[in-house]
Amino acid sequence: MKISIVYWSGTGNTEAMAKLIQEGAVSAGAEVVLKEVAKADVADVANVDVAFLGCPSMGSEELEEGEFAPFISSIEGQVSGKKLALFGSYGWGDGQWMRDWEERMKKAGAVLVAESLIVNEAPAGDDIEKCKSFGKSVA
Ligand SMILES: Cc1cc2nc3c(=O)[nH]c(=O)nc-3n(C[C@H](O)[C@H](O)[C@H](O)COP(=O)(O)O)c2cc1C
Questions:
Q1: CB atoms within 10 A of CB 69
Q2: For residue range 18-54, what is the model confidence (pLDDT) as tens digits?
Q3: Cα angle, residue 110 at apex, residues 14 and 4 outer, rounded to 5°
Q4: Please, which residues have CB within 8 angstroms of residue 103's CB and are 6 or more apart in sequence?
Q5: Of ligand 1's atoms, which has the minimum distance to the CA of residue 95?
Q6: What local confidence, expressed as pLDDT, does residue 94 receive?
Q7: Would you state the pLDDT for residue 88?
Q8: DSSP state at residue 102
Q9: CA 22, CA 60: separation in Å to the nearest integer?
Q10: Mind listing the pLDDT tens digit for each residue in 63-99?
Q11: Pocket test residue of 57, 92, 99 for ligand 1, highest count of atoms within 8 A of CB
């Protein structure tokens, strides 16, 4: 199975999640490409079996506006029927950014193949295993 993991991370927390997800997916035998969103394009979603997309809660419960939000806008017209799994880190909120993002992707016709994974700040303790099994179960 071909998997891509595309993420944005300002202080490394979502990046740490991405690497753990990669570890889990690789352990399940998947072929995984991990990319920062600045280096990704629509092919990273279109040409894989499942794309993991990761972005922390920024702004006021929003996707990061400089790189990640434009990427989502660029793929939005092409994700109908595509399998996606969403993840990201947050701080003080209750996960509203993720609920809004899920809604947006579903409206675009994407199939969310797993319950989205959110982690408070840096993954630690149980979060480590949760990230790995998120990758493993989807793969
Ligand atoms: C400019 C800015 C805006 C943020 N807005 C929110 C927010 O609305 N809700 C929230 O829960 N956390 C918010 N956070 C906290 C980040 O989501 C949190 O620190 C996260 O772990 C950052 O992930 P990263 O290390 O991958 O960048 C914000 C952080 C920054 C720097």
A1: 18
A2: 999 999 999 999 999 999 999 999 999 999 999 999 9
A3: 45
A4: none
A5: 11
A6: 96
A7: 98
A8: H
A9: 28
A10: 999 999 999 999 999 999 999 999 999 999 999 999 9
A11: 57
Write the CA distances from 136 to 40, 53, 65, 71, integer angstroms. Answer: 22, 15, 30, 25
Instruction: Report whether 138 contacts 50 (CB < 8 A).
Output: yes
CA of 47 to the centre of ligand 1 (A): 30
Which residue, by CA, sits nearest to atom 3 of ligand 1?
58
Q: For tokens 């029927």, what's the residue?
A: 81
Only one residue has tokens 């998947």, namely 30
Q: Is the CB of 36 under 6 A from ligand 1?
A: no
The class (CATH top level) of 2-138 is: alpha beta
- Closest among 28, 11, 5, 34 to 138, alpha carbons compared: 28
All residues at 6 or more sequence positions from 97 whose CB lies less than 8 Å from its CB, including other chains: 57, 58, 61, 62, 63, 88, 90
Q: Specify the ligand 1 atom closest to the Cα of 57.
A: 17
Residue 13 near ligand 1, beta carbon < 6 Å: yes
The rounded Å distance from CA 88 to ligand 1 centre is: 10
